[in-house]
Amino acid sequence: MTLSGTTFSSLSHLLLEKRENSLVAFGAEGDITWAQFVADVSYHINLLIETPQQNIALCARDSYLFTVGLFALFHAGKTVILPGNYQPEALEELSSQFDVLLCDDAISPLRSAETQLITTGHNPNPHAFAPLDPESIQLILFTSGSSGTPKAIHKTLNQLSVEVEILHSLWGEEIPNSRIESTVSHQHIYGLLFRVLWPLCAGNSFARHSLEFPEQITHHANQNTVLVSSPALLKRLTEEHLPTRLRCLFSSGGPLPFTAANHAEELFNFRPIEVFGSTETGGIAYRQQVTEQTPWSLFPKVEAELNQENCLRLRSAHIDPTGWYQTADECEFVSENQFILKGRTDRIIKVEEKRVSLVEVEKRVDQLDYVQECVVIPMQQAERLILAAAIVLTDSGNAKLAELGKGKFWLLLRNELRRWLEPIAVPRSFRVVKEIPLNSQGKRQVAELEKLFQ
Q1: Residue 282 β-bridge partners
Q2: Pair type for strands 205-207 and 23-26
Q3: pLDDT tens per residue across span 147-192
Q4: At what angle do helices 112-119 and 34-49 cross, to 10 degrees?
Q5: What PANTHER family does this protein map onto (predicted)?
Q6: Residue 113: is its pLDDT beyond 60?
Q7: What CATH architecture applies to the domain 1-159?
């Protein structure tokens, strides 16, 4: 199959492909070829077919072992559950949703001699690969659950396939023969698509392990590398100044500050491609920030309209094949397929019977000369609801805090904010942090934020 002039394999027919010794994955453990990948999947399919349980949770740190497990589960006809993270408490919380947990230790690559037996036809029980039924293969993802009970999101292989094809139609010609490095987990929809599924379909190789620190990104960067990342890590590149070229750079999981986009271009000679979406919708729009008001462009095959509250409604085969999906994202269309995000209506709360937009409060706090970044959350205090702000200070903010002390500094911030906000919307409690707690997908860790004020 060919899309955008490049070779492309569908997810349903992927394991039927003949790719000889093309590279699938790379890491400190060594390179993984296509023959090794097919042999490993074949071996684990035979094991899983003998497993009577149907609902299997897959949670692996190694992206290659994860991929082997994923396709073995698909071809064994199992329902795949993807927990949001690897933490024991999080897995225990989801334990009622699955029968068996499949992790790194249970997915062992075959030794080279065993691989040779399978690829040369001497394996006593080789698996005969057949095309997958895109509608019958089920995948259940869970949101991270950082602010409440994890939510199950059901996907079919067809929905994943449609989105991978969209990604390849948009950027496939830009990244042939690339090596995919990532700072985000394959356990989430963004990492699953950009780090594993799309590279496999497009014949690009991917790293087995994540990059976790800014210096690792610059060390691994080169003109053949595509980086799949998030604002959480890209914002931490401020101390990196040695330019190193990247083939392409993607960011998703939250808004990327304009300053971070500019700095990334200075470092990597590539302005980040931001992808907008969610676990429920997958990717639905993209942009490369030229200004702070650069609009988002809808993905091909995605229809969108606004409801009465100016919130985005979406329709696409990879979102919900049966109808429209309603979001809480307030938008303004600037053309038929481009829009500007205004914020989320589900971040409007009532404080003493008055409507307060948390997005608006954060915007006003961020405008202060003393504040680099902030997040505002509602907190219950002595039977009343108040707003609490975790703030990262600028150099001038740290200097002013040292000069005035906390009490007078908080009073200064509140007086400044009253120029824009009603008293009820001014945060009553502040905490200074070195950085806003985010997970690897760039999502705010609400539970961690709440602990700051307890």
Answers
A1: 278
A2: parallel
A3: 446 789 999 999 999 999 999 999 999 999 999 999 999 999 999 9
A4: 80
A5: ENZYME, PUTATIVE (JCVI)-RELATED, PTHR45398
A6: no
A7: 3-Layer(aba) Sandwich (3.40)
The two tokens of residue 420 are 């824009």
Concatenate the DSSP letters of all residues of 161-187 into one string.
HHHHHHHHHHHGGG-TT-EEEESS-TT
The Cα angle at residue 61 between residues 60 and 62, in degrees rounded to 5: 95
The whole-angstrom separation of Cα 149 and Cα 146 is 8
- How many Cα atoms within 13 Å fall on the side-chain side of residue 145? 19
**DSSP letter string over 12-29?**
TTGGG---TT-EEEESTT
Tokens of 322: 């049966």
- CATH number 3.30.565.10 given to 352-452: no
Number of H helices, E strands in the chain: 14, 25
Q: Give the least confident one: 56-60, 400-404, 441-445.
A: 441-445
Q: Where along the chain do its domains lie? A: 1-159, 211-347, 352-452
Q: Which residue has the tokens 């931001």?
A: 274
Fold matches, 211-347 and 352-452:
no
> Cα–Cα distance between 394 and 409 in angstroms, integer?
14
Place of tokens 């399919």: 45
CATH of 211-347, one of 3.20.20.150, 3.40.190.10, 2.30.30.90, 3.40.50.12780: 3.40.50.12780
175/5 Cα distance (integer angstroms): 12
Q: How many residues does the chain have?
A: 454
